[in-house]
Design goal:
CATH architecture: 3-Layer(aba) Sandwich
Subcellular location: Cell membrane; Cytoplasm; Endoplasmic reticulum; Nucleus membrane
InterPro entries: AB_hydrolase_fold, LYPA1-2/EST-like, PLipase/COase/thioEstase
Number of helices: 5
Helix content: 25-40%
Domain Phospholipase/carboxylesterase/thioesterase: 1-191
Largest sheet: 4 strands, parallel
Strand content: 15-25%
Mean pLDDT: 95
Number of domains: 1
Order of helices and strands: HEEHEHEEHEH
CATH superfamily: Alpha/Beta hydrolase fold, catalytic domain
Strand order of the largest sheet: 3-4-5-6
Number of strands: 6
CATH class: Alpha Beta
EC number: 3.1.2.22
GO cellular component, one term: plasma membrane
Oligomer: single chain
Shape: globular
Distance between the termini: 28 Å
Structural class: alpha/beta
């Protein structure tokens, strides 16, 4: 609900916005307490074990949402995936593993999950030219800016580097800001112009 409110301020009338809720599940990092989560988080360091089964299942769930929109008459190349933190991580992973050609990805304060599962060098799939807007606060205590920087370097080795934009925001923690939302709006308006 929080993100649908944030998006309300930047909505374009010709674009449909879908903000799915993550399911509630126990999260290892949160002492196994149940919370909204797309997949389990075991640790927050670059070499932490990852919930491969959960990440892949979550990506299938997002692909099913894309399929539903395609059935509703929206071509997949008119769909942008986006998310914050774990949702951004899931958006990147899904876009890089789907067989559906997408318009772009908005990846906020996040990282690329299962990064070692991707081949070294360029991606051969349908989204090797996909546009990516990656944003990160330079004071993020939860997902350090370094994760964003490492992710953007990995992305530039996999997809056309000219299509990867990395923006950082001074003083921003694990959150969003007006400037970031305006960058998101510009990206969406550029890659989903009215037809």
């Amino acid at each position: 609900h929080g993100w649908s409110e944030a998006l309300a301020g930047i909505k374009s009338p010709h674009v449909k916005y879908i903000c799915p809720h993550a399911p509630v599940m126990p999260v290892s990092l949160n002492m196994n307490m149940a919370m909204p989560s797309w997949f389990d988080i075991i640790g927050l360091s670059p070499d932490s074990q990852e919930d491969e089964v959960g990440i892949k299942q979550a990506a299938e769930n997002v692909k099913a949402l894309i399929d539903q929109e395609v059935k509703n008459g929206i071509p997949s190349n008119r769909i942008i995936l986006g998310g914050f933190s774990q949702g951004g991580a899931l958006s990147l992973y899904t876009a890089l593993t789907t067989q559906q050609k997408l318009a772009g990805v908005v990846a906020l304060s996040c990282w690329l999950p299962l990064r070692s599962s991707f081949p070294q060098g360029p991606l051969s799939g349908v989204n090797k030219e996909i546009a990516v807007l990656q944003c990160h606060g330079d004071c993020d205590p939860l997902v350090p800016l370094m994760f964003g920087s490492l992710t953007v370097e990995k992305l530039k080795s996999m997809i056309n580097p000219a299509n990867v934009t990395f923006r950082t925001y001074s003083g921003m923690m694990h959150s969003s800001c007006i400037e970031e939302m305006m960058d998101v709006k510009q990206f969406i308006d550029k890659h989903l112009p009215p037809v």
